[in-house]
Design brief:
Helix content: 25-40%
CATH architecture of the largest domain: 2-Layer Sandwich
Number of strands: 7
Distance between the termini: 61 Å
CATH topology of the largest domain: Nucleotidyltransferase, domain 5
Largest sheet: 4 strands, mixed
Bound molecules: zinc ion
Oligomer: single chain
Number of helices: 5
Length: 169
């Protein structure tokens, strides 16, 4: 027998062509990269010769999607604080739910670990993150007479640019 099974949903016929053997909506969902139910239905409705798929009355829960949507536990509160003022700064970039009047779409927040004081800057683009970081560092140096020793941020792409990486070294 020349045909062989690939995964649970695809087979190769005698001509070497792949074809699907799924008949359930959940199988198609998994086979097509966990696409949404709405997109799956559109695919079925708008694709010529799409095989007949049984659509259940209640949507089955996909374990993979359910796991992917679970919120991770918050980190436990830290019991230690920076000793010097502005020694350690936590920062994060957030997207606003709507674009503000001056076309600000993001804001960056700086938290002084020692005091807990916060500072925010509105940004039009994510790429403005570097400018905001330099402006905050200058503020701390000039207005507060302090030097930032450490920055703490997540692995967001805005902090991974070549210029930010080079500036932090
Ligand atoms: Zn899924």
């Amino acid at each position: 027998m020349l045909s062989s099974l690939i995964g649970n949903h695809m087979k190769i016929n005698l001509c070497g062509q792949l074809y699907y053997v799924c008949s359930r909506l959940l199988d198609w969902h998994k086979c097509l990269g966990h696409m949404s139910e709405q997109a799956s239905r559109q695919l079925m409705d708008n694709t010529k010769d799409f095989p007949c798929v049984k659509i259940p009355k209640s949507t089955p829960i996909c374990p993979g999607c359910a796991q992917g949507k679970m919120a991770s536990k918050a980190f436990p509160d830290s019991q230690s604080r920076a000793i010097a003022n502005f020694e350690l700064i936590h920062l994060d970039l957030k997207e606003l739910p709507m674009i503000l009047y001056h076309k600000y779409k993001y804001f960056i927040i700086f938290v002084n670990d020692q005091s807990g004081s916060m500072f925010t800057f509105n940004l039009q683009q994510k790429s403005d993150t570097f400018v905001a970081m330099k402006a905050f560092k200058a503020y701390v140096r000039i207005q507060q007479g302090k030097t930032i020793r450490r920055w703490c941020f997540d692995a967001g792409g805005e902090f991974k640019s070549v210029e930010v990486t080079a500036w932090l070294k």
